[in-house]
Amino acid sequence: MTLNPKLVRRTQEAIKMLEGQPTIAPELLQERKEKAADWFRSLRDQICNRFEALEAQAQLTYPELYPAGGQIFERTPWDRPEGGGGEMSVMKGRLFEKVGVNISTVWGSFAPQFATKIPGASEDPRFWASGISLVAHMGNPHVPAVHMNTRFIATTKCWFGGGMDLTPCLPVEKDTIHFHQVLKNMCSQHDPSFYPDQKAWCDDYFYLPHRKEPRGIGGIFYDYLNRGNWDKDFAYTQDVGLAFLDAFCPIVEQNMGHLWTSDEAETLQRKRSRYVEFNLIYDRGTEFGLKTGGNTEAILMSMPPMAKWD
Amino acid sequence: MTLNPKLVRRTQEAIKMLEGQPTIAPELLQERKEKAADWFRSLRDQICNRFEALEAQAQLTYPELYPAGGQIFERTPWDRPEGGGGEMSVMKGRLFEKVGVNISTVWGSFAPQFATKIPGASEDPRFWASGISLVAHMGNPHVPAVHMNTRFIATTKCWFGGGMDLTPCLPVEKDTIHFHQVLKNMCSQHDPSFYPDQKAWCDDYFYLPHRKEPRGIGGIFYDYLNRGNWDKDFAYTQDVGLAFLDAFCPIVEQNMGHLWTSDEAETLQRKRSRYVEFNLIYDRGTEFGLKTGGNTEAILMSMPPMAKWD
């Protein structure tokens, strides 16, 4: 809809740097694609294991809040007729009311209109994309919702992108500080500009202009990352994935025992309506998925289990 | 997102006819604007009165299904800083779980990018628009949700648009037949092509490509109506508004006494998720409103009170 000028400029700068990088030899690119896809799969396994452990811990420690049930991920593979496919992992638990962790590796050709908007696709509309994407909606209004995504995309150019952001219903200052501190520490090991730039990009991106509201308390967001050193960019993307667990899981453990009122449960449903609005109106990942014939069920797994509007 | 070729062609044909019409003298246009805006206001009053009567009837006749409460519309006027404003009328009853009837009369200038997409606005981006828009979400899964909208828009050209469509959760064939029959009878008094064309346009428009599902059982949809005879076009738009009550209210009366199970209530919440998806991803009225700085609360009044996703 309305485009934020800062966001537009930041995106253009990243694309410019990326477009200046040389094209990679096909064999080398193939090897990198495999490495990236393997990593996203292994990260998925780590995250699912950790989330199942948290769910079990919650049901064991606070059975009055989280009665036993639904504490494992169910996996559903899917194929994409045009090429590739993916695997959805969904857990509908009590602590994790609904969490989806999707991986996918897809390829094909962008529609002509769409290709002009993607770096390196104007000259050749073929693309390859692999990534992991997760959204967790928690049953307890004191435990924030979270989103994380990282991806590697190749056209005639290639780049990494991703990020994560936290959406508390009832924000707690020390959780916000912890989440950002973990990201800042991780980023600073790669590039001093990453945290401030990617935090600002995240704030710009996860904003609902029609509500004049941020989606949550931010995090980091990066796209079109290609500094001319694939190994370094890949290492960063791997660290983003690992930092996610350190940034999010302690907040879950810290707050899972907090009782909630029916008013707070209602507040959570209303907060979730904004999540729905953001994802359906503004989110580029949703748009990309729907426009490239992605798996609708996997794309819209980001929807909360329930939402309320006034 | 993906554009339906039939819908694109139908829209282009209507725009072509409209653009062939001469520009109207300012005093005459002013008079017509006032007539149109007055009509939308008076239609709003008729609809609200009728809906309040239905709500009262439901609470009186079926108190076990519809306990007393919330049976009148609350009105909230709003101003638009750029020019004009509107009035929301909202009833949160038992039969009408949430119904919003909005009227608005707004004016201003389209943003340059947007102006090129609107007939008669490339040469002069100023616009004036008045209309009525309603969405009713019913508490009983056996009573369909409904949407109706009619509007008069003026740039250097002017035209009417509107329509209505029914979204049953648990469709009943005779209700579908009744709804379409009322529309067909009304349309046929104006132009034999209206019903078949506008029914097809409605089917094309209220479709969710990513779900491969229609939103509901259709109705009529028209836009860019200007046959070179304003009185005839206005009379048609008035009849659309009046036909709405005849098309919808008997279906409400017919089904309001039908008991529902908790499974059916759940099915209703899931059906509503598609309504949310349609309005936020595809609906042009929502896009128009948000892009022209409309009142967010009024625009998103179309959202159901609650929705569920799997």
3D shape of chain A: globular
Beta-strand percentage range of chain A: 15-25%
Count the E strands of chain A: 10
Distance between the termini of chain A: 23 Å
CATH homologous superfamily identity of chain A: Coproporphyrinogen III oxidase, aerobic
Secondary-structure element string of chain A:
HHEEEHEEEHHEEEHHHHE
Report on the structure:
The structure is a homodimer of 310-residue chains. By secondary structure, chain A is an alpha+beta fold. Chain A has a single domain, classed as oxygen-dependent coproporphyrinogen oxidase (3-Layer(aba) Sandwich). Chain A is built from nine helices and ten strands. The first copy, chain A, has helices at residues 5-19, 26-61, 112-115, 173-188, 194-205, 230-255, 262-282, 284-291, 296-299; strands at 74-79, 84-91, 96-109, 126-138, 145-154, 158-167, 207-208, 213-214, 219-225, 306-308. Chain A has a seven-stranded antiparallel β-sheet with strand order 1-2-3-4-5-6-9. In chain A, helix 2 (26-61) runs parallel beside helix 6 and helix 4 runs antiparallel to helix 6. The radius of gyration of chain A is 19 Å and the shape is globular. The two termini of chain A are 23 Å apart.
